Amino acid sequence: MPESSQTASSSTTAGASATTGTTGIPLTNFNYYFLLKTENIEPLIDIVNRINKEINDNQNLIHSLCLQIDNHGKFPDTIASSTNTNDNSSTSIDDPLRYLLEEKYNITRSPNLSSTNTTTNLEDYKQSLINDITQLRQLQQSKNLKNRQFLSIIEDYEQELNTFILPNLRNLIINNLDSNKHQKSKKSKTSKDILLIRKQFFMIEKLIYEKYEKYIIRLWKLIKFIKLLNKFMIKLKQQQLKQKQLEMIQEVKELKLQLQEIK
Fold first, then answer.
1. Residue 97 in contact with residue 235, Cβ under 8 Å?
2. Region of residue 198 (left: phi > 0; alpha: psi -120 to 50; beta: else)
3. Where is this region: Disordered (predicted)?
């Protein structure tokens, strides 16, 4: 064998021994470690990216749920307050708005409404809110009708005063004054009549003022009732918004369950 072939074979054996020394795994025809290491990088990167995306989505969902709970949830400030509320739970009113509707306005509760959070019970709760709004509208219409009747009565009183009582009284006073001028000899008598007329005028004026005070009081009560009704309608709208938020939270929970099933 020539020297060149001997040197080539020795160099190849040296290179092979150096490669096996650096990697620790011999490169043979039956070893696919190098191929697996280079060709399977892209699928692994795709899997890692998908896992990162799912983790980010879950973090966003958890963040939105925490925001919903922090903004709309009511928790006790201290342990003592929580124990006190638990002790007094039997005596406290669960729904003050419902208590007000039933006790003050005689609005009945829907018989299908229950305390669980299923889909059918949410529909029953919506129907109960619709029934409450309908009854409140009927109550408002009846109050408006009564107020119109009161207003017509007040207008009748005012018309009676302006068209009959006050003109007749004015004529009576004028006639009495004229008669006093022509009957100076009966000065004492006319003075008594004037005093009597003034007294009568004072009584009538007092009566008119009392009517006016009653009218103002009724108007003030009507304004207060309208304000209370507006506040109540605002509370109902807030309840509807809370109901929508509960539905959104339920949908988020369902999405979270679906994501867990996908995992």
1. yes
2. alpha
3. 1-20
